[in-house]
TrEMBL record:
Residues 1-23 form the signal peptide. Belongs to the UPF0065 (bug) family. This is Tripartite tricarboxylate transporter substrate binding protein. Keywords: Signal. The lineage of its organism: Bacteria, Pseudomonadati, Pseudomonadota, Alphaproteobacteria, Hyphomicrobiales.
Length: 318
């Protein structure tokens, strides 16, 4: 009986300690945000712009750590393998997070990836040097038809939105393009500026927020022209059936206590609603499209189904 009382007391003490730890989170220990792409790209810019406002809500320091590669798999693996104490999060981007699971057995357990919030949805686009002979997708397609495989297009990896847009354009136009992979949009921009590739896939927000005098966009892969780029024709307007966008948000290990995940999610919502952040997001050309964890989870299956149809184009090339 004494052993039972002692064990019960010990268990109660442990539960109280765990509860107290949850209540104290976050402490003065920095929270690490693993960004799945290289510095300077749209994902990196979004997180660096948002982080100070989340810090203000939590009273904690957020450290950005770039871990690019494998379309985000490196970042997701690092996040899910870290101690589930609420001090390690990662960026989460679709379509890459979904398509990598269609492509291969990933090194992390997708069931351990819990969505915290979606911040941005940004339609895709192709851009070229400002001095390029191409002024539209029609121009690029005409050249590609006359020169099969000669048009090199920068992407940030297999199954990313730029790569899938490229495959859709190939099918819709009946052309052959050559994808070239980079660790982030900033690296691809540098290669494009140096003439190492002829075009690159980029999100509209990234293009609008960049130094546009050096580049020009050929079209956007959206149903309708984005508010941030009302003068840029869609692919459909130019006769090509290409629809593709990138979602950018935040994920946390599902083994992190729900109370901590909820606290972080609430802080993100307050940060996104902050008028000062919204003004900075406008300056950075971030197309805000907030979804809570619950809302994003409800929408993801339909997006995965649509991407599954597009993914068939990847399989056709293998």
């Amino acid at each position: 009986m004494k052993h039972l009382i002692r064990n019960t007391a010990l268990a109660t003490s442990m539960l109280v300690s765990i509860g107290a730890a949850h209540a104290e989170w976050p402490t003065d220990r920095p929270i690490e945000m693993i960004v799945a792409f290289a510095p300077g790209g749209g994902t990196d810019v979004m997180h660096r712009t948002l982080a100070p406002y989340i810090e203000k809500e939590l009273g904690a320091k957020i450290t950005i750590l770039n871990r690019p590669g494998a379309s985000g798999e490196i970042a997701y693996t690092a996040m899910t393998q870290a101690k589930p104490d609420g001090y390690t999060l990662s960026s989460l981007n679709t379509p890459g997070f979904l398509t990598m699971q269609m492509d291969r057995k990933v090194r992390f357990d997708p069931k351990k990836v819990c969505l915290v919030a979606r911040i941005v949805e940004d339609p895709g686009s192709f851009i070229v040097q400002a001095k390029s002979q191409f002024n539209s997708l029609k121009d690029l397609v005409a050249y590609a038809k006359a020169n099969p495989g000669k048009v090199s297009v920068g992407t940030t990896g297999l199954g990313t939105d730029e790569h899938l847009a490229l495959l859709q354009l190939e099918k819709s136009a009946g052309i052959d393009l050559t994808p070239v992979t980079f660790n982030g949009a900033n690296e691809a921009r540098t290669a494009l500026l140096g003439g190492h590739i002829m075009a690159m896939g980029i999100n509209v927000g990234e293009f609008v927020g960049s130094e546009k005098s050096a580049f020009k966009a050929l079209g956007q892969f959206a149903d309708q022209r984005a508010v941030i780029a009302p003068d840029l024709p869609t692919a459909k307007e130019q006769g090509f059936d290409v629809i593709m966008s990138s979602e950018r948000g935040i994920a946390m290990n599902c083994d992190v206590p729900e109370a901590i995940r909820t606290k972080y999610s609430d802080a993100v919502k307050k940060a996104v609603d902050n008028p000062e952040f919204q003004e900075k997001a406008k300056q950075q050309s971030l197309p805000l499209s907030y979804r809570s964890s619950e809302e994003w989870n409800k929408e993801l299956p339909a997006r995965a189904e649509r991407l599954g149809e597009v993914w068939k184009l990847v399989k056709e090339q293998k």
